[in-house]
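dude i think i finally got it to work??
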Amino acid sequence: MPRYDFAPTRRRRSPLPILLAVLLVLLVGFIIYLSTVDTEVPTERIEQDVTNEVLA
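look at this
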């Protein structure tokens, strides 16, 4: 006696939406990380002789 199954077969969902969401979260996290990194260079004192020899 054959068995008939009229229930719809479940299709596997595509992993693409989950991968895109993970990539978006990683991108946003990387941008936030870059905005918090201290990139300011400390100032240096530069001493230079600015005497005008033409006027002397």
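Residues 16-36 form the longest helix (21 residues).
im so relieved honestly
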